[in-house]
Every structure is written in C-alpha cells, then in structure tokens.
Design a protein that fits this description.
- By secondary structure, the chain is α+β, with helices and mostly antiparallel strands.
- It has a domain of 101 residues: Lipopolysaccharide (LPS) transport protein A like domain (lipopolysaccharide transport protein A fold), CATH 2.60.450.10.
- The chain contains 1 helix and 9 strands.
- It has a 9-stranded antiparallel beta sheet with strand order 1-2-3-4-5-6-7-8-9, with no helix packed on it.
- It starts with a helix and ends in a 5-residue tail after the last strand.
- The model has no long low-confidence stretch (mean pLDDT 84).
C-alpha cells in the first residue's frame, strides 16, 4: 500500500465517520423537536358584538369587545369589554373591564382589570359606581359579586369594602367586610 492509497483510505474513513456522526446528531434533534398542535374548531374575532338572551330568547344584554377568542375548554376570552343590559330588561347598569372570560355555558363572566360597574339611572339622584380589579357577573340572574377590595361611589360619597354582592335588577348592594367610609342619611 502506498502512502497515497493510505491517505485516501484514511480520508474515506474520516468522511464516513463524520457522516455517521452527523446522521446520529440529526436523528437526535429530530426526536427532540416538539410536535406543535394547532387549535381546532376555535375562533377569534375583532370588534366583537355579542347579544345574550333570556330564557325566552329575548335580548337581555350585549357584550362589546375589541377582541374575542375561544379557548380550548370552550370558554371565550374577551379584551376591552363593555357590557350593557337591553332597554327592555330595565337594568340600568353598564360594566367595563380590561378582560373577561365567559364560562363554557355562557352563564357567568369573570371580569378582571379595572372593572367598573356603573348605574346610570341615578339612584337617589346620583350615579352609582363600583370599581374593583375582579368581578363575577351572572347576567341572567342580574348579579355581580367579588371577594376582592371594592370602591363604591354614590355621587361624591365613597365607601370601600372587601367583597360585594349586588342585585342589579333590584339596585341592592351588599358589602361583605372591612367597610369604610362616611355616609350620612339625607
């Protein structure tokens, strides 16, 4: 065997070993790659307007949002939400929030981020506002509730509390604990 043949044989062995090494490395990378599954049968919408109905199929409330997306568990996530009751329902409350998640059966909404519920009917001649960071709404039962800190503003009067249950159709607010503020009867 000549030196030239020995050199060619060594190069061929080195190339075959490099080829084998790269093949094994490629197989290892291929095995580590995660399979990406895309959601199926889900939707997203921009500039959304959804109408909710009562048990008779009549319009009860309207949800407006900049963005809505169905989640994997059939819940719907809304961004920049505005909820109003229909005129026929005679419930003068509106609710704004940064985001909301509608339960899969659409019976409840979990609102979060700068939540503001406002009664525009001017109870006792004054507008009532409820502000908090989290609020649960059951529109067909006309209730909102939270265990989070809340601020209630009636005209210029301000109360703070931890936890609230409000019956929107009856204009009743029930504060749970740590109630602070001064409220003089007229």
């Amino acid at each position: 065997m000549t030196i030239k043949n020995l050199l060619v044989f060594s190069v061929l062995i080195a190339l075959s070993m490099a080829s084998w090494y790269l093949s094994e490395l490629y197989n290892e990378i291929e095995n580590q790659t995660e399979e990406i599954t895309l959601p199926t049968n889900q939707f997203y919408m921009l500039s959304t307007r959804i109408l909710g109905t009562d048990s008779n199929g009549e319009s009860l409330y309207k949800i407006e949002a900049n963005h809505a997306q169905q989640l994997e568990n059939d819940e719907i996530k809304f961004e920049n939400v505005y909820i109003t009751y229909s005129i026929e329902s005679d419930v003068p409350w509106t609710i704004n929030a940064n985001s909301a998640i509608a339960s899969a059966n659409h019976e409840a909404f979990s609102l979060s981020g700068n939540v503001l519920a406002k009664n525009t009917n001017k109870l006792s001649g004054e507008i009532t506002e409820i502000s908090t960071q989290y609020l649960e709404l059951q529109p067909r039962k006309y209730t909102v509730k939270t265990t989070s800190p809340v601020k209630i503003k009636i005209g210029e009067k301000i109360l703070t509390a931890t936890g609230l249950l409000a019956l929107l159709d009856e204009n009743q607010l029930m504060l749970e604990s740590n109630v602070n503020g001064e409220f003089l009867p007229q």
